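Q: what does this look like with magnesium ion bound?
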Amino acid sequence: MKKVLYVDMDNVLTDFPAAIARLPRDVVAAYERKLDEVPGIFADMLPMPHAVESFLDLAERFDTYILSTAPWENPSAWTDKLHWVKRHLGEAGYKRLILTHHKNLNRGDFLVDDRTKNGAGEFAGEHILFGSEKFPDWPAVAGYLRDRDT
Ligand SMILES: [Mg+2]
């Protein structure tokens, strides 16, 4: 049986700061401190460097899911995240998107996440902290997981 791997979206698969940088200045001002509530902000997220190729590779060796939180006050985010997974991950993401504020309730072996919020810090498996010194980027994460699929 394959080991179970969860991968977060924002700042792991998707480049959230790049999307913010493309927003008009008045929108940034109006949504200060709640930029994840900008309508449509999740629609055209760019993938993080090497994120898609790494996910596709890992999805062949792990039972892989996307484990993300969509902002409660941004209904379009829930739809936009589904569209993003379909567009960028295709078959590897088919019916494997889990949107939750309680990531710790999902059972599995690994969670790649850049934060401890929304249950990520209480995940019962191994939390791979994306963006940390040990795991600064996708090549580091993929290299670490390469030998851990059995
Ligand atoms: Mg994140």
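The chain has a mean pLDDT of 96. The pocket of magnesium ion is lined by residues 8, 10-12, 113-115 (CB under 6 Å).
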